[in-house]
Each structure stands twice: as C-alpha cells, then as structure tokens.
Amino acid sequence: MYKLLLVDDEPEVTEGLMMEIDWESCGFSEVRTAGNGKEAIELIEKMEPDVLITDISMPYMNGLELADWVKKMYPITRVVILTGHDEFEYAKQAINLQVENYLLKPFSGSQLTETVLQVKQRMDEEREMRNNVELLREHYRMTLPIVREKFLSSLITRHQSLASIREKAEKYGMELDGEGYVVSVISVLHSDKPEEELDPLHAVSSIKDLDLKLFSIANIAGEIWTRHKLGKVFIHQDQVVLFTVSPDGRDDEVMEATQDVLKEILQSIERFLKLPVMIGVGTFTRDIRSLKYSYEAAEVALDYRRILGINQIICIDDMEERVQEKLIFDEWKEQNLVRSIKVGTEQELADVIDELFDDLSRVQAPVPVHNFEHYLLEMVTAIIKLSKMIDDGKDNDPIFAVGILDQYQKLNTLNETKAWFTDLCGKVRSRIASRRQHSYKHIVEEAIQFTRSHFNDRELSINVVCAHLHISTGYFSSLFKKEVKMTYGAYLLQLRMEAAKEYLRTTELKTFEIAEKVGFADPNYFSLCFKKYAGVSAKEYRSGLAESSR
C-alpha cells in the first residue's frame, strides 16, 4: 500500500475527491490533503508520500514550485499536476520537472481514479523489479565478469585497504590470497608490414581492431594461465594484464614460474595469432596492495623494446638494478589514517592501525633498521601534523604534554610502539570529536540567536540563515534537526506562533497587525497557521483568555 497527498486551495475539490474516490481500493492506505504549497511541504516532511497530486494555481506557492521542491528533496515521489485549460501552456513546464502525469480541469473522479491507478501500476512494476530476486541474480550473473574485471583493474591503478580488497574478492568469488604477487603486461605493437604481406591464413594478424586482438590474446593467455593455476588474466585499457598469485613467498621461484608460463603464452601468440607483441614483467611483492607498483614496473620494462626488439619477455629486474622491497608510508596510507581518525569509527581506526603495523611484519629480512625507523616516524609525523590543526593553545590539556619524540624514543618493542601509537590516535580522535560537537552546538546556537532576532522579518528563511552562517542548507538542515529535534521550518513557525500568543495576551493589536509583527506577509495565511498550531483561531484564543480572567 502507498501514501498520497492531495493539494488544492479549493476545499470543495479536495473534500469531494476524498469522498468520491475509493483510495484504499486504488492501493493507498494513507491519503491526506493540504490547502496550499507551504502546508503541503510540512505534510510531505512528515509523511513522505509516494504520490503527490497538486493543483497549479494556489496561493503562497504554486503547484509547479511545489513539484520542483519535491523533485529535489524527495526525488522518488511521483507527481501528478492538476491544471485548468487556460493554464495548459504553463503546465508544459511540468515536462521539465519529470511529472508523472497531468489532468485538465474540470475532470471527473473516474478520470483521476484512472490516472492514479496508472501511477500505482508503474510503482508496482518498479517495486516488483526491485524485489525480483531471481531477476537480480540473473542480472548480477551477467554483469559479474565486467565487475570482476573492473575490480582487477582497480588493484593496479589505485590504493585500497587490505580489508576492502579481501571483501570484494570474496564477494566476486575470486581467490587472490597468496604469499607473492607479480604483474605482467602484454602489449600489442603496431605492425609496419603492408597489408598484402600479412598472412591471409591467420585472420587475427590482419585485423585492425585492437579490441579483437586483445580479446584473442586474453583468451590464449587466460587458458594457459588458468591451466598452470597462476592467477588472473584480464584486459586493462589497451593491454592484457596477468596477475601471478602464488602461495609461495620466495621471489626467485615465483618469478621463474611466471616467466616460464609467459614463454608458453608468447609461443602460442606467435604460432596462432601472428601478432607482434611485447611482454613486460614487473617487480615481485608480498603485499597485494603494492600491485600498482609492480604494474608500473612492468610498464617501464616495455620501454626496453626499443633496445631488445619485439616478441620478447622483458623482466624489469634484468634491466635495472633490483630495488629491495621497501616499507612505504605513502600519501594514500597517510590519508587513510587521517580519515579514520577524523570521521571513522573506533573499529575502523583500529583496523587501519593493524594494517600499518602488519606491513612491518610482511617485509622480510634483510631490511635495514632505518627503513623501519623511517616508516614509524612518518606515521608519527602524520599525527603531529593533524594535532597541530586542532591544538590552538586554548586548551589547558594539550594532547602532547610531553614531547612526542621523547615518548617515542623510550619505546623498546614493536608491541609497545603499537599500543602507544593506538593510544595517541585515540586521543587525537577524541579531541576532534569534541571540537566537532562544540562546533555543531555553536552553529545551532548562532542560528537560534539569529532567528530570535529576525523572526519578524517576512523574508527570513533557511536560505537566509545559511547565507548568514556561510554553510549549505542541506548540511544545516540535518545538523539543526539532530540538535533541536525538529526542522528549522517547524522551529521558526513555533517561534512566531508563541510570539503571536504573547501579542494576543498582552496587546490589543488586531490580527493582521500581529501577523505583520511576527513575520507573515499574508494575514490569511497567518490565521491558517495559528489555528493549526493552537487548535483555535486567534480571535477564539484571545476570547478564551478574556473569559478565563473573569
């Protein structure tokens, strides 16, 4: 069952439609009405209707303005526009607002019923599609190869956390756990042979479509790679990429096994495809997060084709002095640590710290001790830089009461260092959270103070307040509601209504004068809001006060 809101400034229209149409049989368990756009907004925020039916011509806010607001704030709500014949051209604007349908006045109850049923049917179909598990499974099965390939490409192009890699690998049904990794790249070279010299018996060699060439190479490479259980093969940009995922952590054995299978692949490409290619082999790594560096090294290896010629396997370690696998506290690791301190949960921060210290155990000896020192000091430096942003000297309890480097120098073991670093990050995280909460309260307090000083200004709105505070309306709305437990619009209305009550109690001002004093441009709209807020009209409220004082 769905929810529906009917908006029209003519009560006889809304009352008639409420009585004439059997809304429940049309699939709507909750149907409410509003007399204008502003009243409708208040109801929409409370009930979040599935369907909005609104007249165009209304006071305070017309139907198209209301539809525009709904599409921005509640984009999945379906909108049906009601319009008179003389407004038909005007109603064409509804097309830009992506409204569901529009009805020309005068219309019958049966016409509206038919329209509503059509809208419900479309919602039912959409809901059925979303809930059709078998359809979703089939769609997932069909797109899984593409998703897997994108995931593999992401491993060589950007940094990801170890937890994220493992989670995605498990989700996509890919076994990527290993003790050693190597990235190799097969690149198709441009052939200088004229077309008449190409072997007509080998169709692939004469194909100019690079995508088809890559597909053919990936098929051959994938079949051989899978047979030897070496890892994964996929197409990335204009190359075929091969992951070696080895259970063995010995780099020499992993590199030898990789190159042996690459030789078999190269021979098959030469024999069956007659394509000029080069194969670059990157560096060995024990950390799957470092595949990006292995891929970049394989790319560098390909550059040596100018020296060695085509149809070769070039291992970067044979061409350049081998660089020992290093501990690298790179920009991504620093950003990940800082992000987890600023906005992560306590568990997310613990996971990041675990990964950073696990890196120390992954890199095997011999590794110079100064590499470990540099890695740890870079981590500590990141915390120092972050702490400087929040310690402005105003606190009596600075985070680092004792010099942080002095603290670090007194540590004796890796476990001690990890415990100390975890405690340090926790303190900075708590300080940031405290500052943020104070900032939230300060923003809301400033907004309340500004509202109390300007509530009698008819132009006052959430946009005016946000412009004064220099923040976005979306951010302010969620912040204000979280702190005050009501929307800003509801708070402003409450403030104005309580002020109106005070004027009614203490002055002889007329209703239209009070309306103006509390920020209403239209006395009629003020009367409507007051009755809705107080349960009685302004006149009845004042009369009630007079009677109670007798």
Your description of this structure?
With 550 residues, the protein is an alpha/beta fold. The protein folds into four domains: 2-131, Response regulator (Rossmann fold), CATH 3.40.50; 141-319, Alpha-Beta Plaits; 331-435; 455-549, Homeodomain-like (Arc Repressor Mutant, subunit A, Orthogonal Bundle). 59% of the residues lie in helices and 11% in strands. It has 23 helices and ten strands. It has helices spanning 11-20, 37-47, 63-73, 88-91, 109-131, 133-157, 162-171, 210-227, 251-273, 291-302, 305-308, 316-319, 331-343, 346-362, 369-390, 404-409, 414-454, 462-469, 473-484, 488-506, 511-517, 523-534, 538-549, and strands at residues 2-7, 28-34, 51-55, 78-84, 101-105, 180-188, 231-236, 239-246, 277-281, 313-315. Strands 2-1-3-4-5 form a five-stranded parallel sheet, with helices on both faces. A hairpin with a 2-residue loop joins strand 7 (231-236) and strand 8. Helix 8 packs across helix 9 and helix 20 (488-506) packs across helix 22. The protein starts with a strand and ends with a helix.
